[in-house]
Amino acid sequence: MVLNTRTKGLLFVIAGAIFWGVGGTVAQKLFQDFSINVNWLVTVRLLLAGTLLLLLQASRKNASRVFSVWRSKKSAMQMIVFGLAGMLAVQYTYMASINHGNAAVATLLQYLAPVMIIIYLLTRRLTVFTRQDAVTFTLALSGTFLLLTNGSLSQLSVPVAAITWGLLSGVALAFYTLYAVPLLKEYDSIVVVGWAMIIGGLSMAFIHPPWQADFAAFTPEIYAYLLFVILFGTMFAFWFYIESLRYLVPKETSLIGNLEPLSAVLTMVVWLQEPFGVYQFVGVACIILMTLFVAFSQKSPIKAPPTAKADPLRA
């Protein structure tokens, strides 16, 4: 069966969001139960996942394409900016928020990114807001809020550090989503994501070298969790998310990405056996409805006008 481009985009972003959400919960377990250092985890996961992606690209196609992004001074600079202000920023702020709080709070704050994207594009007059957009936006935010708070603001009483890092992760995810678009027009998504991870990982290596860890204390269980975080929670999650931008507009990818908090919370309930309230079930319903609404709509949830320029950050 041949899938159309929109269906491909939906499948990529849904799979990426699920992997990302579950990966956050696994990272929480590593921090809380095994005292894994957040700086070390970010360094290792970025370096290994980035290397694996570039090796995958080299094995699939002409190996020279792996280095194509560095042949132009303009694309090389864009790649460095994306690796530091996009990939590394998203990774570190999200992990730091989990480390200081938990995966649920970190995910909730990170998913303010669609709000930031919409405000940015509306301010730059690169999009219009419709009733369909309002429904999608309301379902997404309401579902995320109910799912992660069970309808009580008091459950957001978390350390200031967790809130700060979580808000910064929302800003980073918004930038990451928008800034990737021009790079994807010229280069394969695997190349873009792979190099961004390596750039971010090398930068973090100066703060916490990957070889500085108490490996003698690592159990098979820890290695299994690390492998999941590196492969599914990082490599496949980011690759699928960035690949979806080839087929969907950035705001659509961000809104459907609200499946991430759904997968994160359900994993915490089933695996970590945390309580699940009535309002959280309502939140699950809202997110599922939002995803179906976006998936079966004939147009993107928030569609840019025909006169909008292709690169929103340079318009």
Automatic annotation (TrEMBL):
Keywords: Membrane, Transmembrane, Transmembrane helix. The keyword Transmembrane applies. Its main location: membrane. Pfam families: EamA. The chain crosses the membrane at residues 37-56, 76-95, 101-122, 134-153, 159-178, 190-210, 222-242, 254-272, 278-296. It is found in: Endomembrane system. The keyword Transmembrane applies. Belongs to the EamA transporter family. PANTHER family: EAMA DOMAIN-CONTAINING PROTEIN, INNER MEMBRANE TRANSPORTER. This is DMT family transporter. It comes from Jeotgalibacillus terrae.
